[in-house]
Design a protein that fits this description.
The complex is a heterodimer of chains A (about 110) and B (about 110). With about 110 residues, chain A is mainly β. Chain A starts with a strand and ends with a strand. In chain B, a hairpin with a 2-residue loop joins strand 6 and strand 7. Classes of the chains: A mainly beta (about 110), B mainly beta (about 110).
């Protein structure tokens, strides 16, 4: 299994508070992604990174920011959490880019915003 | 907007039967992948088929791709209770860089 660790695995927070989710990988993969999973929507891409300090927006990036200061870490920040951001968040990595290979997923972080 | 959809949304079969799941997408793609997700876990890659391929096999899995109909199917033969999971198709839209778009998923339940 690819070494992808997400933290925290579960978090309950209140509307308006900042939240940071961390993804740590030991595979030295170039590409890292943050998805959210909601019933009826499958997985939707929030942001992704194609290298250290190189990031781009995905389909549902509003209300989220990311940072990647090291190859192994990709942080997802909710500056001011809202109830609509209650979801399960998945980090994924790819060594060669999605066009040429598979994604490796973490176990997910369940976030509840009250 | 959702670029890919799968049907059926849910499928219940008996062990030993075959399970077929379908994925449709709206625009041209570079490749299509299938993933599996056990309850409460992350997704696991199953198989990748390129836009110039029509069929691919891996163990008990058979994937087809029809780019003219913008659709793909995943067949699991001789299903087992351990195959119970959600299955997702995912694809790169042409010109989509390295962004993988996922379908809505099929929940498969294999009963003993």
């Amino acid at each position: 299994d690819a070494g992808i660790t997400q933290s925290p695995r579960h978090k309950v927070t209140e509307t308006g508070t900042p939240v940071t989710l961390r993804c740590h990988q030991t595979e030295n993969h170039r590409y890292m992604y943050w998805y959210r999973q909601d019933p009826g929507h499958g997985l939707r891409l929030i942001h992704y990174s194609y290298g250290v300090k190189d990031t781009d927006k995905g389909e549902v990036s509003d209300g989220y920011s990311v940072s990647r200061s090291k190859t192994e870490d990709f942080l997802l920040t909710l500056e001011s959490a809202t109830s609509s951001q209650t979801s399960v968040y998945f980090c994924a990595t790819a060594g060669l880019g999605q066009d040429t290979g598979e994604l490796f997923f973490g176990e997910g972080s369940r976030l509840t915003v009250l | 907007s959702q670029q890919g959809e799968e049907d059926p949304q849910a499928l219940s079969i008996q062990e030993g039967e075959n399970a077929t799941m379908n994925c449709s997408y709206k625009t041209s793609i570079n490749n299509l992948q299938w993933y599996r997700q056990n309850s409460g876990r992350g997704l696991v890659h199953l198989i990748l088929i390129r836009s110039n391929e029509r069929e691919k096999h891996s163990g008990r899995l058979r994937v087809t791709l029809d780019t003219s109909k913008k659709s793909s199917s995943l067949l699991i033969t001789a299903s087992r209770a351990a195959d119970t999971a959600s299955y997702f198709c995912a694809f790169i839209l042409t010109g989509g860089g390295n962004k993988l778009t996922f379908g809505t998923g099929t929940q498969l339940k294999v009963e003993l």
